Amino acid sequence: MSLAALRQRIATVSDLLCTLNLIVWDSRTMMPSGGAAARGHQIATLTRMARDTLAADATMDLLARAEDEAAGLPADDLAHEELRQIRRAAELHRRVPAELIERRAAVRAAANAAWIEARARSDFSLFAPLLEETVANTRAYADAIGWEAHPYDAMIGLYEPGETLASLQRLFGALRDGIRPILDAALARPQAQAAFVPGAFPADRQWEAAKAFSARFGFDFGRGRLDTTVHPFEISFTRDDVRITTRYNPADLRPALFGAFHETGHGLYEQNVDPAFTRTVFASDLVGLYAVGGTSFGAHESQSRLWENHVGRSRRFWELNFAELQGFFPDALANVTPEAFYDAVTGVRKSLIRVEADELTYDLHIMLRVEIEAALMDGSLKVADVPGAWADAMQRHLGLTPPGDREGVLQDIHWSSGMIGSFCTYTVGNVMAAQLYAAAKADPGVAAGVAAGDYAPLAGWLRRCCWTHGRSKTRDAILQDACGRGLDAGAYLAHLRERYAG
Amino acid sequence: MSLAALRQRIATVSDLLCTLNLIVWDSRTMMPSGGAAARGHQIATLTRMARDTLAADATMDLLARAEDEAAGLPADDLAHEELRQIRRAAELHRRVPAELIERRAAVRAAANAAWIEARARSDFSLFAPLLEETVANTRAYADAIGWEAHPYDAMIGLYEPGETLASLQRLFGALRDGIRPILDAALARPQAQAAFVPGAFPADRQWEAAKAFSARFGFDFGRGRLDTTVHPFEISFTRDDVRITTRYNPADLRPALFGAFHETGHGLYEQNVDPAFTRTVFASDLVGLYAVGGTSFGAHESQSRLWENHVGRSRRFWELNFAELQGFFPDALANVTPEAFYDAVTGVRKSLIRVEADELTYDLHIMLRVEIEAALMDGSLKVADVPGAWADAMQRHLGLTPPGDREGVLQDIHWSSGMIGSFCTYTVGNVMAAQLYAAAKADPGVAAGVAAGDYAPLAGWLRRCCWTHGRSKTRDAILQDACGRGLDAGAYLAHLRERYAG
């Protein structure tokens, strides 16, 4: 009885979170500019109602009674994990003072406006006071929810449960040491990038091509859409309504195509969570108050990167599929060979902007950000010194110096949105993607499918090993069962070595 | 203090209602088919939260204290009306048993599915059991919220406060007597309809044309959108985000154009409600739990019909604007004259389907439905006898006999959605539109503008006399102040006589 009542209550929280995702999707794709102010109120109200429903005394009473009820269930019943996750989230929210929630929301709104202005003027000093407040509030939030070794660990745990600054430093050390020689080798090779001459790619044809490949990977357009935004993203309102977006550069089809591959990977994860988990904690991040079926941000990113990079950027993929792409752009791609196109989508160069970075240098941009975030969180770096620290780190990791704040410390939206601790999940995703793809290809059916351009066996393997479990299984449990070990840089470095220094 | 706290609480209800409207908009325009089931849960959860917040004991306590606080305010302070409306809505919701709300929602879902099936097979007997339950529940609902002369009055009052079955019967009597001779005269004239040869009208050009005229009427696309649906509608998420839709028949541009004119009228009303009313009871129907700034369904319809029929179907409008329309469709409209086009948009014929009815016969379809609804509500008509009653009334009002249930009793979605009592508002809207348009044209600036193709003075007059007041002023107070009398059929009959029997 109590367990059923508790589940009903979590279902209403899930309804609110799914609706919040719809609001966010609409805000980024459809909303006229005038709608923004009211939208802010609507988001605040629904978020507060979700939090209040979850953290209410009545929920805690129900939870305690449901735990008693579940005590009689077999040890492997998922109800135990379900109740553990609900308790963790409810207790976390109860530890955060209402006043701090309001302060964070207020600073977020102001910080976003200040960041836009500062970025336009390439002047960090306009954003610095708001970043100061953001760091102070984030530190207060970390203290409220609790941490052991380092305050940054509390924030990392929101996005990537199980990781800490210390564990990331070990992972990053291995990656840095492994990537450096590969990068040297890649840069020493002749760069074929110039062989691909950008042409005229009408946006509607790009949309059709992106949709066709997305469907080939298994994305179900009866339960999803592909729309247009400046910054591609994926978001879901249950597994049966998953929205992905991409962007269109009329002179270059690569951003649209690889944006769509990436978001399709995210979308496949959401569309394939066990339907029994709909409206439960196993398809809701109750800590982050975000409707999502993926078990961590890193696990989610592993799926997007797997389809974008391991499948979509492979030589075999374009041997098999370039003719289909040419069919969409018969003029612009008339004189391009599959080989030249492959070279054009695997070019390597050191660059200043994370979102434009290639596969091989991407993680160096992440390491830089994690270093700075950690130092801000423990107070060893002052906000005023961030541009200098950025320049130092950029020089150390990539040998480059940003010409101004716009191309440096102001390039990312994350800090202005109050997000500190999420960057590491991009690299976790890269590492996990390589582990899963290597394990999948060890399955003869998957390998034969990929070799022949049939991606259904791969999707089936991922569904079984990862997607279907939603949030009922941790990232490391998924890795352990699928690959025989937890997060480990080996497979990723082997993949980078083969592709870029082979 | 209490008044401010109460307003804050109503603001959160408004946020929920605006979000519900976004969910509805998305469901009808963007949602993939797979999303429907989860969407139903989301709508149910948000509706229940809005109702519970409004009807909570804590709200009633706040309300009582706010009323004490407001007692010291001047008699003409809007706070008195604000509190009166909040109390009326909260008390109404507290009178309806939770069990009845759930029963109505459950029947609505089943009735909609049964109606779709019954309509596809043109077999009323498949829908009859659900209509039986719908009528029983509606009667129970009317009893719960209370009525005096007739149970139907309770339902009419939800959509058109102030009207009753008796007042409608008086209005309909005057209209029936007035329309009959006009209709005879119109049908005796040669029908010019055939002079307009349908052509090829690409949907994207229709969208551009619709948008251009909508903007000409004053619709602000910085605070709104025009999208595509099978059934055009308007919906808003505050005045600053108003969405309208229309539909495209590639062989005939009239449905898109007049659909857009109609919804633009609704949209103008919402976009021009006093900004001070955003997130207050004066932009929320707290009884119907619907975010809307228009003061009644009929008042809303008056604005859509004013722009669609009085402006958009006038001879002068096409004398002035046909060349612009031709610019969008240079081939298809090459040999059409403004006069022929005017004739083609003011043709009259008796027909079976309400939504295809012309301006002159439209209200006869409404009278038929109101007769049947009233008789169902007081039990003088049994559900099993509805098709017969429909055939009788159709013969009496229009001299036609439907060939089957699909073209008769199953044509409208309303009853399957649990809506009994709303049909009358279409006729109220027609009547009110004529009164307001006549009063507006008595203003020399408005008349000169309309004569010259400048619609800004008309929009300004409507903003001042109607739109800006939102729900702070009743329909009859608006009419009284603008026209010197309440709802009255005279202006409408004069307009019909001039256009169709002139």
UniProtKB/TrEMBL annotation, chains A, B:
InterPro entries linked to this entry: Peptidase_M32_Taq (IPR001333)
EC supergroup of this enzyme: hydrolase
Annotated residues for binding of Zn(2+): 262, 266, 301
Needed cofactors: Zn(2+)
GO MF, one annotated term: metal ion binding
Superkingdom, taxonomy of origin: Bacteria
Statement: the UniProt record of this protein carries the keyword Metal-binding: yes
EC number: 3.4.17.19
Keywords, in A-Z order: Carboxypeptidase, Hydrolase, Metal-binding, Metalloprotease, Protease, Zinc
Record has Ligase as a keyword: no
Details of cofactor binding: Binds 1 zinc ion per subunit.
Gene Ontology terms describing biological process: proteolysis
Active site: 263
Reaction equations catalysed: Release of a C-terminal amino acid with broad specificity, except for -Pro
UniProt similarity note: Belongs to the peptidase M32 family.
PANTHER family associated with the record: CARBOXYPEPTIDASE 1, METAL-DEPENDENT CARBOXYPEPTIDASE
Biological function: Broad specificity carboxypetidase that releases amino acids sequentially from the C-terminus, including neutral, aromatic, polar and basic residues.
Protein name in the entry: Metal-dependent carboxypeptidase
Species per Swiss-Prot/TrEMBL record: Alsobacter metallidurans
